[in-house]
Amino acid sequence: MKASARIFACALAAVLAGSLQAADPPAAATAAKPPVRFAIVGLTHDHAAGFIPSTRGRDDIQLAGIVETNAALVARYAQRYHLATNLFFPSLAELLAHTNIQAVATFTSTFEHRRVVEECALRKLDVMMEKPLAVNNEHARTIAAAAARGGIQVIVNYETTWYTANHAAYAMVHDQQAVGELRKVVIHDGHQGPKEIGCSPDFLNWLTDPVLNGGGALNDFGCYGADLLTWLMDGRRPDAVFAVTQHIKPGVYPKVEDEATIIVTYPRAQGIIQASWNWPFSRKDMEIYGEKGYVLVPTAEQLRVRLPKTAETEVIPARLTAPHADPLGYLAAVVRREIAPSGLSSLAVNLTVVEILDAAHESARTGRRIDLP
Prior knowledge:
The protein is of the alpha/beta class and 373 residues long. It has 2 domains: 133 residues, Rossmann fold (3-Layer(aba) Sandwich); 188 residues, Dihydrodipicolinate Reductase, domain 2. The protein has a 9-stranded mixed beta sheet. Strands 3-2-1-4-5-6 form a 6-stranded parallel beta sheet. The termini are far apart.
């Protein structure tokens, strides 16, 4: 067997065998553990609508309360998901006076992440927030400092963290080094626009605000690419960032950019992040090119791989296993200290993500490449 074919066969075997994650714990051991009790803080992020139903019927984690001050939002969520009114509280302090929790999942604006982490750090509560970590570097560093003082874990939830294909691509590229040294990564994320796809007014109010969201499409979808790229580069900070943004729909999004392209450079590689509220359809896909092959990730559960002297091959990888298969299972394992946050969800990687986004905004504003110290 030729060397390239042998490398591909080994990498493919590892992917299909599901060796990317640790095996599920024995059922008896899982059942013996009491569920991790957590609270949701904030409901203005529409991702809460998909998150709450996933908490039901689980024995590893339990929703114990929701903090929200907007009475209309409380009524809407209580009715939609048949939630008891005594599950809702006006503040974290009020919730803690009535029930015990071990962690918080926050669905506030990105600007409010800092406040939530500071409150939770004082109470020794681990925190998971929706991407991105923070609106800017100042907030991100404050979050990291508060977490360190409180001895808590902070993790960031991206939809793409739970894509089987992303982890399979990482294993082939990073672990098996099937395509050789990385040269270029191109990442596309976004959709037709938050208003166009029907996001709620509560979500739009802050998502299209340059202070509360830190930007527009650049932050909303550029963070996905910065996260994946930093992970693929083994946590390395880039040397420089250059970005171009546009207001293609100023009548719809007058205060924030709706189009962004970010070029992130390393000594021997380049990342291109295309974040947009102008795609003709929703997409979260990636192209990874090495010195001797490529791995394309067109969907959450599919790869297309080509190595020298081989035809492009489609790969359907094995599914991820607990506790790495979904955000709730991951949060429960982190709270129990069964795993340490790493990779796409980790605070370390996401501090670099925010640094890239900050540099991208500065580059777009000034028209200059931003060199990172």
